[in-house]
Amino acid sequence: MSAPMSLKRAPNTDPEKRSDNSIRSSYNDEADTLQDRKLLRKVDLRLLPILTLLYLLSFLDRSNIGNAKIDGLTTDLHVSPPAYNTALALYFIAYLTFEVPANQLNHIVINVNASLKRFDPQFWLPLLTFAWGVASVAQGLVTNQAGLFGIRVLLGATEAGLFPGVVFIFSFYYLRRERHWRVAIFFAGAALAGAFGGILAYSIGKMEGVGGKRGWQWIFILEGLLTIAVSIVAFFFVPTWPQKVKWLSDAERTRLLARLDSDNDAAKKENFSWRYVRQAFLDPLVWGYALLFHGFAFVLYTLSLFLPTIVADLGFATWKAQLMTVPPNVLATVGIVFGAWLAARTGRRASLIIGSAVVAIIGYIILLTTKTAGAQYVGVHFAALGVYTGNALLLSLGPVSWPAENISGQTKRAVGVALQITIGDLGAVTGVLLYRPAYSAHRFRKPHIIAIGYLTFSIVIAGGLWFRMARENRRREEMIAAGKDEEVDYETKVFLGDRDVHWRYTV
């Protein structure tokens, strides 16, 4: 599809706004210059390394329980197989419960006075990281099932605000067409966490008995301490809003805001109103994004949490299973980067998400139909490649960032992004409850079949979103060609947001 068109504006009678708008509207988002590329490199260097590292640690701390399980966690804590699945589900229930309020706080920060300066993302995101690092360490100190349940709830609650908060921050620094690559790199931290998690679990597991603690306890403790250490450093590196950062000159800040204003409403000031919240809940596309991630979240989290168990059930020893989770995750990382590059090169979104789902389905079919450990291990690679690549595409081009890219209006976007993850993570809750240990004797045959069903469901939803948005783009182009695009004032355009005839969806 063509690049998003700029919104026309009626003359502004406010001298201050008119001066600011005249500067911003002079930018043509199709004409990136050397100055723009230098600005983007500067922003990339300040945002991507630290935020990607935080997400890597987040995914590592939520999924390392799978590594700890095969090192003896359930036996030592006398956690029954169904109770273990409950512990996994409790994390996601807490995560989705706190998702909307955590992300809404990120949005409210934009419009408050200095009295809430302490909730600046430069403070808020490292604080969340510190909190879940403490929770991760505490996982290694629990002594019974009740303690494990409680700490998983705390871990989910403290991690809830990171991902949507980071994607929301990205919308204040990058154009819509630039955002997908950055969020894809950011999401690559999830796959890297799986790779590092296997290596770390193998290495840390050798500390069995050190200090009177089991190897699985040291997995939680050391990885949690790593998160705490990084969170302290992050206070000095996580960015604040572009209007406040000191590492941008006045000219660079003006240029950045002009670029954003030419593309979407990220640079506009919008007062909170419940009508924008209602717009999000009444928009069928928002629910489509949520259902799409619902399908992909099922396979993403079941695969990441149960991969060590799936590999171990192929007949490999515990220490081999830890190491053999590394290659599928490395392949997934390569798939994420290649998928993001291909999407940027072709301008395609939904079609690549559908293709990734097909690759994952092939992997699950191999797991279901083959008998040898080697062949099934190949199936694991296909599944990991498709699942992680598809999630990266839809999280950088789809559900999380599809709302961020295709929803105009700060409040509506914030609610849409949070709602998408909330509904999406219900798929994760369902998944961890369905992957019961009782099914491991049959190599998770029934859950794998259900995973194929969820992926098929995602293909249908992605196709529906693709058709709906492409048709709406054509309808609006026809209206403009027929001269039916009436000029409205600036405030009305802010209210209309993505419903404005000049808005174009990214498909």
Helix-strand blueprint:
Elements: H1 15-24, H2 34-69, H3 73-76, H4 81-108, H5 121-139, H6 145-159, H7 162-170, H8 176-204, H9 215-234, H10 250-263, H11 274-282, H12 284-312, H13 318-324, H14 326-346, H15 350-369, H16 373-396, H17 401-406, H18 410-434, H19 445-481, H20 490-496
Helix pairs in contact: 2-5, 2-7, 2-8, 2-9, 2-12, 4-6, 4-7, 4-18, 5-6, 5-7, 5-9, 8-13, 8-14, 8-16, 11-18, 12-13, 12-16, 12-18, 12-19, 14-16, 15-16, 15-19
Transmembrane segments: 45-63, 83-102, 123-142, 154-175, 182-204, 216-238, 285-306, 326-344, 351-370, 382-402, 414-435, 447-467
Protein name: Major facilitator superfamily domain-containing protein
Subcellular location: Membrane
Structure description:
This protein is mainly α. Helix content is 73%, strand content 0%. The protein has 20 helices and no strands. Helix 4 runs parallel beside helix 7 and helix 5 packs antiparallel against helix 6. The chain is globular and about 70 Å long. The chain starts with 14 loop residues before the first helix and ends in an 11-residue tail after the last helix.
